[in-house]
Write a structure and sequence with these properties.
The chain is of the alpha/beta class and 216 residues long. It has a single domain (4-76, 125-215), classed as Vaccinia Virus protein VP39 (Rossmann fold), CATH 3.40.50. It is built from 7 helices and 10 strands. It has helices at 7-17, 34-43, 59-68, 95-98, 126-132, 151-157, 183-192; strands at residues 25-28, 52-55, 73-75, 78-79, 84-91, 116-124, 140-145, 165-173, 195-201, 208-215.
Length: 216
């Protein structure tokens, strides 16, 4: 089954770069691994699943990824602009509810949130991961970031490697969390780094925007 919310990202990549021989995909905030694997399959020929890097700090979802995609590279720390330890709110329910788990502890007050649990998770920067995986001089074909209000901090954590990424798929919010960095702040940051927006979509309504950006 093709996920329509990835089509703009796939089209942007192929229109600008053609098909990738061996796609390198980073999916930050993976939940179940499905989007990261699908992106790799749709932009190129996948023969090496270790080039699909999935980030998921919620332990039960890590087990889902390990079961369904045992050959991917799984990073189990949360991504932030600094290394450390934070509290993380786990939300139970179907996969969409589970995917809303976040470092934003105020989500416990949302009316649609029923059963929760708070755990401690380690945080790290994306530039540290890139260096650990030996991708310093490597083109990352697509990076999808969906971490419930912390996209700006994840982009900052790329440091000097931000322009290693050809195409970004970014979930952004009208209200940020860590420093209230909104979808507009993210757009201004991406423009300042030499990226062009090719698509803005409302998969979850007008308060949450999916922005696709291509390096120019």
């Amino acid at each position: 089954m093709v996920n329509k919310w990835l089509t703009s990202t796939v089209d942007t990549y192929i229109n600008h770069f053609g098909l990738a021989e061996l796609p390198i995909i980073y999916e930050v905030g993976s939940r179940d691994g499905e989007d990261g694997v699908e992106l790799a399959e749709r932009i190129g020929h996948v023969t090496k699943f270790s080039n699909i890097v999935l980030f998921e700090c919620n332990p039960p979802q890590q087990e889902v990824i390990r079961h369904n995609y045992p050959n991917v590279t799984l990073i189990t720390d949360a991504i932030s602009d600094k290394k450390g330890t934070v509290e993380f709110l786990q939300i139970d329910g179907d996969k969409n509810y589970v995917g809303s788990s976040s470092m934003d502890l105020d989500r416990v007050k949302y009316p649609w949130v029923k059963k929760t649990n708070t755990i401690k998770v380690k945080t790290r920067r994306l530039d540290d991961v890139i260096e650990e995986l030996g991708h310093q001089n490597t083109e990352i074909d697509v990076m999808k970031i969906d971490i419930e209000g912390y996209t700006y901090e994840a982009l900052e954590s790329l440091g000097k490697y931000l322009r290693n990424v050809r195409v970004f798929h970014l979930e952004t919010e009208i209200e940020g969390h860590a420093r209230n960095k909104t979808n507009l702040d993210i757009a201004l940051l991406m423009e300042s780094k030499g990226y062009k927006c090719t698509s803005i979509e409302e998969e979850w309504g007008p308060l949450i925007l999916d922005q696709v950006w291509v390096r120019i």
